User: What shape does this take?
Amino acid sequence: MKWSDVRKLYPNQFVKLKVLSSHIKNGQEFIEDIAVIKPVSDETATSELLKSKGDELVYHTANKKIVLEVRQDVGLRRLDYHENQA
Assistant: This one.
């Protein structure tokens, strides 16, 4: 399903989605095809997002497009306390 169709079916509300196809360009992921899992109330949108796994997301239909910023995982190095003592 296309996002424009979802916006017509569920105006001005959050929906939980499964991403079926997308592409990445210039550090942004452009979502092309989705499946609606369910509409989500404003009160439960954050908890639904936190429960989402893999290719699921919660998004508001007020947005004209689904464009996500792609973040690279940055590893953090733990500094051992004894490592830097002279």
